[in-house]
């Protein structure tokens, strides 16, 4: 049977851990967005060695488990003088892993721009930076926002993996709470509801942002 008194007793601790989960998700996603675009540029480069090396790195990261990458950053990097906190290691792992996926999303959006847009920029004697900032990216980003939103939600649901490097996020708190009382129904159910609610809110936010940009 569901015990509301027991549920209310662990809710404050769960909400405290929720802040860590949300922070890890959004910082990791911000990092992925920043790294994804340079990876796209490098892969589209006319310099074949750079393009091939970048493509290899992207495929390697996408083809290996995120959990293995989290372990590597947290446990192997210290052997080379780089010790990171669980939060920093988790955020970096999430950011790099999802940057490889977002790089492909960026590439799809950029390659969907008609060639006439590039030709018009050259005809107007736009510099490369001005062409990207004023013409290409404003047209490439809005259509790919739904896909980026899907990756944001996916990243949010991947944060429980960070408990493997001792980051205390909401699922880890739920497991600890359940282990202490041998009651898992309430904490695991509440965590599931929180994931559902926050994923839904994120999807609504992405939809509104997409609508706003399309109107512009």
UniProtKB/TrEMBL annotation:
Compartments where found: Cell membrane
From the record, give the transmembrane residue ranges: 20-40, 52-74, 80-99, 132-153, 188-206
Tell me what topology the record assigns in the membrane: Multi-pass membrane protein
Q: Origin, by domain of life? A: Bacteria
Cite the ABC transmembrane type-1 domain residue spans from the record.
18-206
Per its record, what are the GO molecular function terms?
transmembrane transporter activity
Q: Which CDD domains match?
A: TM_PBP2 (cd06261)
Q: Which GO terms describe its biological process?
A: amino acid transport
Q: Which UniProt keywords apply?
A: Amino-acid transport, Cell membrane, Membrane, Transmembrane, Transmembrane helix, Transport
The record's GO CC annotations read:
ATP-binding cassette (ABC) transporter complex
Task: Specify whether Transcription is a keyword of the entry.
Answer: no
- UniProt-listed NCBIfam families: ectoine_ehuD, HEQRo_perm_3TM
Record family assignment:
Belongs to the binding-protein-dependent transport system permease family.
Please state what the protein is called.
Ectoine/hydroxyectoine ABC transporter permease subunit EhuD
Which species expresses this protein natively? Answer: Desulforamulus aquiferis
């Amino acid at each position: 049977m569901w015990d509301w008194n027991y549920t209310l007793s662990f809710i404050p601790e769960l909400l405290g851990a929720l802040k860590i989960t949300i922070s890890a998700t959004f910082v990791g996603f911000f990092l992925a967005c920043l790294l994804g675009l340079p990876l796209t540029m490098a892969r589209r480069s006319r310099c074949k060695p750079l393009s091939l090396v970048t493509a290899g790195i992207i495929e390697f990261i996408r083809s290996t488990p995120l959990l293995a990458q989290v372990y590597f950053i947290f446990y192997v990097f210290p052997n080379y003088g780089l010790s990171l906190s669980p939060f920093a290691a988790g955020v970096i792992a999430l950011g790099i892993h999802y940057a490889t996926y977002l790089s492909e999303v960026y590439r799809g959006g950029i390659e969907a721009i008609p060639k006439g847009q590039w030709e018009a920029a050259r005809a107007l004697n736009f510099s490369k930076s001005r062409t990207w900032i004023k013409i290409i990216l404003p047209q490439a980003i809005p259509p790919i926002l739904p896909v980026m939103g899907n990756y944001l939600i996916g990243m949010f649901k991947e944060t429980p993996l960070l408990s493997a490097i001792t980051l205390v996020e909401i699922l880890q708190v739920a497991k600890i709470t359940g282990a202490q009382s041998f009651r898992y129904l309430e904490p695991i159910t509440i965590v599931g509801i929180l994931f559902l609610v926050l994923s839904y809110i994120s999807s609504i936010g992405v939809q509104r942002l997409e609508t706003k940009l399309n109107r512009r």
